[in-house]
Amino acid sequence: MDTISHAGEALPADGAGRPDLLAEYLNADFPWYGLDEGWNGRRWLSSVCRGRGTIDYGTLGHGDLPSRRPGDPTPRRFVSVVTVPQRPKRPAGDGTGQMEATSKASAASLAGVALLAESWPWQLDRATRAEWLDQQTNIAWDLSDNLPGPGWTDLAIPVDGVPARFRYRESAYGWVLAGESAGVYLGVYGRGASAYGLGLSRSVDLRTYATPDG
Question: Are 6 and 47 spatial neighbours (Cβ–Cβ below 8 Å)?
Fold first, then answer.
């Protein structure tokens, strides 16, 4: 993948103090997906990952912000939706080679790794935590490369009101969904909120995500 910057990195996850974050989302050449109107909780801009001249993918957050501190026992309730544009194999922006085509596995791996990043065990010391994250990340990648395999099950999730087939898996840290819609692959991950009964929508109003109290 091309060199990527995380627009939301080291900033409040709702974009507060970052007025250009909404502009980053609006500059994408693909549609964004989020939870439909059935979700009545908070919505927030998470992060946009940009290559050279294009946005590679991004995430919209729903529910509790990822603002836990070490030792905080309060469980989070959140759902995040990762949108990845469907793109073929293409030259890397820096001219060093080829970028792989995006796929449903791309969305699954991004969602799986992001779930781990938000769920790592605070009680481990730093060295052990790094080993844990490396190990779990490799497992997430392997599982994403085998979506038809036994580590996943089918789950129908409505997208713009029409049932769509997703692959679904649970773990001790939360759950992950991987599917697709017109022109994009979708990765969804969450914790503390059931995947059953959720719905996705393309017609999301990004302004409702850019408002800190949204």
Answer: yes
The pTM of this model reads 0.84
Angstrom distance (rounded) from CA 125 to CA 96: 38
Using left for φ > 0, alpha for ψ between -120 and 50, and beta otherwise, residue 12 falls in: beta
Residue environment code for 173-205, b if the CB has 16+ CB neighbours within 10 A, otherwise e: bbbbbbbbbeebbbbbbbbebebeebbbbbebe
- State whether residue 55 is helix, strand or coil: strand
Q: Do the Cβ atoms of 211 and 16 come closer than 8 Å?
A: no
Q: What is the pLDDT of residue 73?
A: 63
Place of tokens 């060093």: 96
* Overall residue count recorded for the chain in this entry: 214
β-strands 184-191, 78-85 pairing: antiparallel
Q: What is the pLDDT of residues 78-87, one digit of tens each?
A: 999 999 999 8
Contacts of 144 (CB under 8 A, 6+ apart): 105, 106, 108, 109, 112, 178
